[in-house]
Structure to design on (583 residues):
């Protein structure tokens, strides 16, 4: 029983399929299996986009109101599986909602989940997932031992999304069973932060700041540089934990993986957990006053210097350019 | 109005020490002294504040760990938690997150909590799935990535972090909430707290006490195995120069070469 059918749980934000979901469709297609998508919300509205990335069918839950997605999506999928329509594998992006859905599904199907995968491949009747360990210096290959469906959470940015030019996916509306109290988590209001410029995980340039900035107020230098380069600002965990910037800015093992053309690390030491999230950048520039800082071990250009001296001059030099 | 909160606390090898893998199973070696996972210290703090705000109740720590390890639990008790449940059993070695969740869910049930708090992800395993699996096993709603938690009546209201800000989310109690690092300032155990912790109740259980079958947990129950660990492609270091006041110009030059500017 090889891997012949894979479902991708596709997330939709502001009417568009997220890049990380398109990456998963690309990865699923590469296995040669039939690829189908599950969408929380109106699947018909994105059937064209999903089809052009290789999904032949989209299972659509329809409007879920303000429900957090974990419970309704997992129970809808579990109902399909127990009704006899079971895929061999289910891929989800390791995002806020992806984890919730995978955790719920794991219990409903009584199947384990492989998490934090950076690559997925078919090996005989099972799936093998790669995981970056020890700060990305080693790759651990893990596989499933029992029966499918195999559930895998894949880290965003592990694959490059590539369209296949397929026709629009056929849409099938699926039932969402009532889950009672366990499904009671509901969004009552959304608060959006004002943000301009590209998103952190999609920007061609990322400028991240760390503890070496000295104080929260100095983070504005990082934001200004990101803006001057049409990039996105990011951060090390040290300054997220210190409350200088929100968690969504964090780059690294417990934050985002970024793969920009240029990554600039200002006042960041280069802990393994940080580097695992940014060492896939094409070019890395580091500014750190300690010439022994590990970040210099992977930087294409390292400046041993004080961020408070280098950044203001750099900002001045970039004025009116780019 | 009293509120009982259970907090999942994982006891882990000191992350500051270099980790190692068992050469045959490729699992993280968890021998020796374990400590309270820093990520869970935030959960303990959040629970203490919620119980204080409710005007009373109990915080129960729940942990699954090898070799009857207690030191992380003692840290949480010293912070002010009232009691602890520890599940330690040789049969649990090699458990995956689903196996771990089955054990923790059964232990949490004994505490009969209004609310369960866990970290969004652990420092050493970071699957980020265990708490939601626990919630599903218990039939509780779950709200992950909380930065602020309040309880009123039979409802928990959470500010849940999102990609673009945060959402207000409400769920009925009993519920599971996961918190991320840094959302509250964690208190240090006082000397008095450390002394008091020594006398606080710590119940130690085997899986048989929880009615769990050994075949559903540990290596026996895990649905996954590690096949191999290989070296990743290494990245080469480039040019490193001392800033003599003109370091910024090197960056400008490099950005020009890359046609970023
Ligand atoms: C399980 C786990 C997961 C983690 N996940 C992440 C993650 O996702 N992302 C992450 O970033 N970290 C993560 N960490 C934390 C990580 O180990 C480091 O603690 C963190 O990355 C350090 O942040 P930093 O480089 O800003 O601070 P520090 O390590 O304190 O480094 C500050 C640097 O600034 C330099 N500096 C100081 N002053 C100046 C100056 N004036 N000019 C120039 N340079 C200066 C110093 O030389 C130093 O190198 C994780 C840790 C664990 C245990
Ligand atoms: N063995 C354990 N004992 C107690 N709590 C745990 C254990 N494993 C996981 N947890 C809880 O679940 C959270 C997420 O863990 P993980 O799924 O490993 O990322 C942890 O931070 C803990 O709060």
């Amino acid at each position: 029983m090889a891997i012949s059918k894979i479902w991708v749980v596709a997330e939709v934000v502001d009417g568009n399929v997220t890049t990380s979901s398109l990456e998963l469709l690309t990865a699923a297609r590469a296995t040669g299996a039939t690829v189908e998508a599950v969408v929380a919300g109106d699947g018909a509205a994105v059937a064209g986009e999903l089809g052009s990335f290789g999904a032949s069918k989209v299972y659509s839950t329809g409007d879920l109101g303000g429900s957090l997605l974990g419970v309704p999506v997992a129970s809808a999928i579990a109902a399909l599986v127990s009704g006899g329509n079971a895929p061999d594998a289910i891929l989800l992006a390791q995002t806020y909602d992806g984890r919730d859905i995978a955790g719920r599904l794991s219990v409903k199907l009584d199947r384990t989940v492989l998490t934090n995968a950076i690559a997925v491949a078919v090996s005989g009747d099972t799936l093998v997932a790669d995981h970056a360990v020890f700060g990305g210096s080693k790759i651990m290959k893990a596989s499933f031992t029992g029966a499918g469906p195999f559930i895998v959470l894949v880290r965003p940015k592990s694959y490059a999304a590539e369209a296949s030019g397929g026709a629009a996916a056929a849409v099938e509306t699926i039932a969402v069973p009532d889950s009672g109290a366990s499904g009671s988590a509901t969004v009552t209001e959304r608060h959006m932060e004002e943000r301009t410029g590209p998103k952190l995980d999609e920007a061609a340039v990322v400028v991240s700041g760390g503890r070496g900035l000295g104080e929260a107020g100095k983070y504005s230098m990082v934001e200004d540089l990101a803006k001057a380069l049409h990039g996105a600002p990011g951060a090390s965990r040290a300054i997220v934990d210190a409350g200088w910037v929100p968690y969504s800015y964090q780059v690294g093992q417990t934050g985002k993986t970024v793969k920009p053309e240029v990554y600039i690390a200002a006042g960041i030491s280069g802990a393994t957990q940080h580097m695992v999230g940014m060492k896939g950048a094409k070019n890395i520039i580091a500014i750190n006053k300690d010439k022994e800082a590990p970040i210099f071990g992977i930087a294409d250009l390292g400046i041993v210097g004080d961020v408070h001296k280098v950044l203001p001059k750099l900002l001045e030099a970039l004025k009116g350019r780019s | 109005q009293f509120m009982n909160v259970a907090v999942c606390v994982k006891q882990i090898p000191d992350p500051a020490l270099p980790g190692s893998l068992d050469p045959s199973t490729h699992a993280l070696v968890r021998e020796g002294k374990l400590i309270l996972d820093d990520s869970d210290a935030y959960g303990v703090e959040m629970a203490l504040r919620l119980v204080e705000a409710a005007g009373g109740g109990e915080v129960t720590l729940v942990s699954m760990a090898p070799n009857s390890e207690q030191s992380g639990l003692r840290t949480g008790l010293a912070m002010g938690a009232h009691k602890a449940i520890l599940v330690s059993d040789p049969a649990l070695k090699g458990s995956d997150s689903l196996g771990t969740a089955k054990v923790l869910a059964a232990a949490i049930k004994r505490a009969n909590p209004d609310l369960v708090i866990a970290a969004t992800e652990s420092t050493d395993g970071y699957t980020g799935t265990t708490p939601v699996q626990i919630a599903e096993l218990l039939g509780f709603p779950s709200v992950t990535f909380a930065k602020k938690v309040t309880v009123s009546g039979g409802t928990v209201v959470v500010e849940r972090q999102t990609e673009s800000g945060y959402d207000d989310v409400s769920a009925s109690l009993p519920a599971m909430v996961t918190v991320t690092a840094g959302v509250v300032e964690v208190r240090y155990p006082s000397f008095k707290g450390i002394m008091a912790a020594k006398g606080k109740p710590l119940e130690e259980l085997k899986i048989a006490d929880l009615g769990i079958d050994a075949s559903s947990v540990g290596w026996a129950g895990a649905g996954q195995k590690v096949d191999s660990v290989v070296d990743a492609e290494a990245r080469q270091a480039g040019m490193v120069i001392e800033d003599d006041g003109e370091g910024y110009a090197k960056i400008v030059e490099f950005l020009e070469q890359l046609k970023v500017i």
Observations:
- The radius of gyration of chain B is 22 Å.
- The longest strand of chain B covers residues 142-152.
- Residues 38-54 of chain B form the longest helix (17 residues).
- Helices of chain B lie at 38-54, 71-79, 97-111, 130-138, 191-198, 218-221, 247-257.
